UniProtKB/TrEMBL annotation:
It comes from Chitinophaga dinghuensis. It comes from the Bacteria. InterPro entries: Endonuclease_MobA/VirD2. It holds the Pfam family Relaxase. This is Relaxase/mobilization nuclease-like protein. Residues 17-144 form the MobA/VirD2-like nuclease domain.
Length: 257
C-alpha cells in the first residue's frame, strides 16, 4: 500500500474534486460533515477551520493506493483508513473516507481537517513522511503487498499514485489562480509559478484555440479531464464573466465612497 499526502487551502475545491462525480466516488464514512453534497461538506469543514483562522492550509488530502494483487473489501478499506488517520495523528477532527472506481487498482481518498473539533490546530509537520510510515506499518499489520517489492506492477502503481497527485495539484492550482486572472496569459504566468505548463490545441492551421492541457512534471491532462470547468470553453467563460463583473464592482466601490 502506498500513501501520498497533499495539503491545501480550499476545502470546497478538495471536496468537489473527490466527491462530485458520484459514478466514481463512493463515500465509505464521514465524520462531522454532510456527505450528501460536496458544497455542504466543504462548508462544514470551513466552519471548523474558522475556529483557528490563522491556519490557512488546513486541508489534509491523503491517497491510499493498494497493490493490484490485493483485493480489499470496503469494510477492510474503511478499517485501514481509520487506523491510518489514527497513526498520523489526525484525530478528534472531521474527515471523509472515499473510494474511487476510476482506475484498475483500488484506492482511497481521505479528506481531513487540520483544525480539530476543539478549534486546536493539528500539526502537519512531516505529514508526508508520517503517512508513508503509517502505510508501511498497516501494510505489514494487514498482510498486504509491501511497496518495497519492486516488480513491474508495483512500478506502475507508484506512477498511478503520482499521477493522481499531479492531477489534483493542477486542479487546485487552476482553481486558486483563475479568480485572479483576466486573460489566458495571466493564467499561464500564475501556473508557471506552480511548475505547471499550459499547452493549447489549435484548430487546423489557424490560431483559434480548440483545446487546453496542463502539464506538471511528466504528467499532462486535458483540462476537461480534470474538471468540466477547466476545458478551454469553461475557462474562457469564467474569464469573460470576471471581466463583466469588474465595472459592477467598481461602481459599488464608488457608491460606498
Amino acid at each position: 500500500m502506498i500513501s501520498k499526502v497533499i495539503t491545501g487551502k480550499s476545502f470546497y475545491g478538495c471536496c468537489r474534486y473527490v466527491c462530485q462525480d458520484q459514478q466514481r466516488a463512493v463515500i465509505l464514512e464521514s465524520e462531522g460533515v454532510r456527505e450528501y453534497s460536496f458544497l455542504k461538506m466543504g462548508h462544514d469543514f470551513e466552519i471548523n477551520r474558522q475556529q483557528s483562522p490563522g491556519k490557512h492550509k488546513a486541508v489534509f488530502h491523503g491517497i491510499l493506493s493498494f497493490h493490484p494483487d490485493d483485493k480489499v473489501t470496503d469494510e477492510k478499506m474503511l478499517q485501514i483508513a481509520k487506523e491510518y488517520l489514527q497513526n498520523i495523528g489526525l484525530t478528534d477532527t472531521q474527515y471523509v473516507i472515499v473510494k474511487h472506481n476510476d482506475t484498475n487498482h483500488q484506492h482511497l481518498h481521505l479528506i481531513g481537517n487540520f483544525v480539530n473539533n476543539k478549534g486546536k490546530v493539528i500539526s502537519d509537520s512531516w505529514i508526508g513522511l508520517r503517512g508513508k510510515k503509517a502505510a508501511q506499518r498497516l501494510t505489514q499489520q494487514h498482510k498486504l503487498t509491501p511497496s518495497e517489492e519492486k516488480n513491474i506492477k508495483q512500478t506502475n502503481l507508484e506512477a498511478l499514485s503520482n499521477e493522481q497527485v499531479a492531477r489534483y495539484e493542477i486542479y487546485q492550482a487552476v482553481n486558486d489562480a483563475l479568480p485572479r486572472c483576466k486573460t489566458l496569459s495571466d493564467l499561464e504566468k500564475q501556473l508557471l509559478k506552480e511548475g505547471i505548463d499550459i499547452q493549447y490545441k489549435f484548430k487546423g492551421d489557424t490560431q483559434q484555440v480548440q483545446g487546453i492541457s496542463f502539464k506538471k512534471g511528466s504528467f499532462a491532462f486535458k483540462g476537461s479531464s480534470i474538471d468540466r470547468k477547466m476545458s478551454i470553453a469553461g475557462i474562457e467563460k469564467t474569464l469573460q464573466q470576471q471581466l463583466q463583473q469588474e465595472p459592477k464592482q467598481a461602481n459599488r466601490q464608488g457608491l460606498r465612497r
